Amino acid sequence: MQISRQVILSFITFTLLSSVSFAASEKPRIAVMRFTNSTNAHWWRSGTGSELSDMLTNELASSKKFRLVERREIESVVSELKFGESGLVDPSTKSRLGKIKGAKYLVMATVSSFEEGSEKSGKGISFMGFGLDASSAKAYIAVDLKVVDVETSEVIETRTIEGKSESSSKGISGSIMGVGGRTKSEQKTPVGKAIRACVINIAEYLECTMVDKSEECLAQYAVSEKKRRDKTKSSISLDE
Fold first, then answer.
1. Which residue from 60, 52, 46, 55 is spatially nearest to 34, judged by alpha carbons?
2. Distance between CA atoms of residues 144 and 156, nearest Å
3. Which structural domains are found in the chain, ordered by start?
4. How are beta strands 155-176 and 130-149 bridged, if at all?
């Protein structure tokens, strides 16, 4: 039985369209590089860059929208594969060399600004020898984000992500018959929480621009970016 030319053409067309659809729906294959620091932040130490890289990798992986390539552990992976080729491993269970997927995009980030106690406020009242006071302070962090296409070295995404953490304290002081005392309670948001919020914002931004690409989320980021730029420009004086 001969297959008609029309059937063959229809099959080829279906195959091509399916391939295009699959390629379009394939998750971006990315690797998160070690964070760098250009500030004098007291909490930054030798391993912080790798810790922040791991933190962002976990956030991106949890979204299920990316394929993450682990760069830091690649040497361990290669060692395991070479061990499999040593002849000491059951051939039916070993992995094969040459099957490691490379990253299509590299995510790079630099902590470009950090201020602790950037905003402070306090107030208090007193009555019949007793006083009530309250104060609060804010910390600020900014991370410059960059996404690079590995094949072309083209920077395809850039963004500055900002975050703040806030701490507050309340206290009561006073004296009766010459006996005085003071109580104080504090509610602090550690710098770590501000950093985590910043990392989550980076992950959500990448989800929007590299995967979802919806007009709604892109518009929201465009508005927030304009606000950030306007606020920064209004805080400095430029020569005309």
1. 52
2. 14
3. 27-92+100-116+146-163+189-229 (3.40.50.10610)
4. antiparallel
CB 167 within 8 A of CB 187: yes
Mean pLDDT for the stretch of residues 21-25: 44
CA atoms of 84 and 82, how far apart (whole Å) = 5
pTM, full prediction: 0.67
Instruction: Enter the tokens of residue 56.
Output: 């962002």
Count the helix, strand and coil residues of the chain and give each as a percent rounded to the nearest 5. Answer: 35, 35, 30
**pLDDT at 35 exceeding the cut of 50:** yes
pLDDT at 234: 81
Task: Report the pLDDT value the prediction gives residue 200, as an integer from 0 to 100.
Answer: 92
Question: Is the pLDDT reported for residue 24 higher than 70?
Answer: no
- Where helices occur in the chain by DSSP H, the ranges are 5-25, 48-62, 74-84, 191-206, 215-234
